[in-house]
Amino acid sequence: MASVAEVKAAVDAALQQVTEGQQAIQAAREKLGEAQQSLAAALDGSGNDAVGAAHAQLSQADQSLEECLGATLVAIEQAQQYTATL
Fold this sequence. Notes:
Mean pLDDT: 93
Low-confidence stretches: none
Helix content: over 70%
Structural class: mainly alpha
Shape: rod-shaped
Number of helices: 2
Distance between the termini: 14 Å
Order of helices and strands: HH
């Protein structure tokens, strides 16, 4: 069985991976925002339904990433609460 110190170290390592994942999520959100702006500029004035659908899907993707980021924050809090009890 792992010692308390080993468990805490393993949790800390996992939390570092989560932090790296959060950074990747933030980078993805930024890229999606840039893509949405580029798409809007390229298709300015178009009334085609596909253009509106593309914008809506990019907005949905951003919202999903925001929810994912929120879930990682909760996961970090829970892991930290656990290790505080060790």
